[in-house]
Write a structure and sequence with these properties.
Length: 466
């Protein structure tokens, strides 16, 4: 009793371990691969119905989405042991209907497909087809004849077989129907642009060769990264070629508003920071799309006064060799100032590893610059990303290797060299470069001389003599 000064003792209850703590989320492909026969048959039937209206299928981690002209019409997912289909329909239109639609309009992830239907019977399959007809005819889409096909074999049979294992030990009264070690978990490893091109079909390769031939004819410089191939000139990005799914996807340095009333189906990516230089996207899935892309290339280049020259036709796809022919760089420069960040196995290479495999010209430039820096009494410190030269807690220069050349970062103000003939690159907007905000690529003897001139200016400014 509290009135007599007794304080009740609070004894914490034991908390049972969560049996679902280490269970990973399974992908749609994994679920479909181990689904029952009737679920697979229903999926094939519904997919055939959706494709008969001309919709395009795109399989993601969570399900199979059907779109046309930038609009999502429906999405097929697997929930538990049955299919669940989401539609671009208003659930209020079916309030008095016998179809038991579920309202997901309150969920932001279901903004495009707010109505759902669980498929657990033959009647539900018929109702699902009725809803597919409703959502398609609403936009005037007509149905064409399409034979029933086993769509699952197109992507499931190519995956490694699932080994049957005993279920893991879990607490009592907990039903966990997952194999040991989460063997159903589908590991999505990101493939580089070069790897995708190596396994691309003949149509993609032909389109790539034709478009790259057009770009190179205008004298643009190509630069290959893990995500695609960028074509630039005078610090301006004109086009980036990527591979999305089973087709090419091009990004153009254009203003989307200028093509809003054009028949060219450009996609606006201006709201994405990674696409600020090339905010307009275009899928290349036909000869017409190739012609449209070449038209856009001609328009951009002619606008900047670039002239087209006749160049020898090449099999550009064949020349995509990660280790010899092209400069491969990583685009996340906030993580590392170096460009060629990964080796062929996908591991990050250190500055020492790059230097050991560098050309004689690069090594000679490196030796000359380091000799100059050490002559001023600066201290050298090698890290995984490069070699920094410091004195009295101040960083003066950092040498890195980007592609096939040295890239030097200097502790100078970009504004002081704005009217200079030295082509410095302003990196002041990057947090990792706040001490050394100006960069210079060392690709020639002239560039080495310019770098030594900047080193001299910096050191003499701080009364450091050679």
């Amino acid at each position: 009793n509290l009135e007599y000064g007794y304080i009740p003792r609070v004894v914490p209850l034991p908390v049972a371990d969560d049996p679902f703590k280490n269970i990973k989320r399974r992908s749609f492909v994994d679920k479909l691969r181990v689904a029952k026969k009737d679920v697979k048959q229903t999926y094939n039937e519904l997919k055939t119905e959706a494709l008969s209206y001309g919709l395009k299928s795109r399989i993601s981690f969570s399900g199979d989405t059907f779109r046309l002209h930038k609009k999502t019409y429906l999405k097929i997912t697997i929930s538990g042991k049955s299919l669940k289909v989401f539609y671009a329909l208003d659930v209020n239109d079916y309030r008095d209907s016998p179809i038991p639609l579920i309202d997901y309009s309150s969920q932001p992830s279901k903004a495009e497909t707010p109505s759902a239907l669980k498929i657990k019977s033959d009647l539900a399959v018929k109702r699902a087809k009725i809803l597919i007809e409703d959502v398609c005819k609403k936009d005037g889409l007509t149905k064409s004849e399409l034979n029933l096909k086993d769509w699952i074999n197109e992507f499931v049979d190519e995956l490694p077989p699932v080994e049957k294992e005993e279920s893991p030990a879990v607490q009592e009264n907990v039903d966990v129907n997952l194999p040991a070690d989460n063997s159903f978990h589908f590991d999505f490893n990101r493939r580089s642009f070069v790897e995708k091109m190596a396994s691309a079909n003949d149509e993609i390769i032909a389109n790539y060769n034709e478009i790259k031939q057009e770009l190179m004819a205008y004298g643009l410089k190509n630069r290959i990264s893990t995500s695609g191939e960028t074509f630039r000139l005078h610090k301006k990005s004109y086009v980036k070629i990527t591979i999305s799914g089973k087709s090419l996807k091009l990004y153009f340095g254009l203003n989307y508003e200028d093509f809003k009333d054009s028949p060219i189906p450009l996609i606006d990516y201006s709201d994405k920071p990674s696409k600020k230089d090339t905010p307009c996207g275009l899928f290349i899935k036909s000869n017409l799309a190739v012609k449209r892309s070449k038209y856009l290339i001609d328009m951009m280049c002619e606008k900047d006064g670039l002239t087209k020259k006749e160049i020898e036709a090449k099999d550009w796809a064949k020349e995509l060799n990660l280790s010899e022919n092209e400069e491969v760089v990583d685009e996340d420069e906030n993580l590392s100032p170096t460009g060629d960040r990964f080796n062929f196995e996908g591991k990050r290479r250190s500055f020492n590893e790059k230097l050991a495999a560098a050309s004689e010209e690069l090594v000679a430039n490196y030796n000359e610059l380091k000799q100059e820096l050490l002559a001023y009494g600066l201290n050298s410190r090698i890290s995984a990303s490069g070699e920094a030269f410091r004195l009295h807690c101040k960083t003066y220069v950092k040498l890195t290797i980007s592609g096939k050349s040295i890239k030097a970062y200097f502790a100078v103000d970009f504004a002081d060299y704005k009217d200079s003939s030295i082509p410095l690159i302003d990196c002041s907007n990057k947090a990792s470069k706040k001490e050394i905000p100006c960069a210079l690529k060392i690709k020639s003897g002239l560039a080495v001389k310019r770098a030594k001139l900047i080193i001299k200016d910096m050191c003499e400014k701080d009364n450091i003599h050679k």
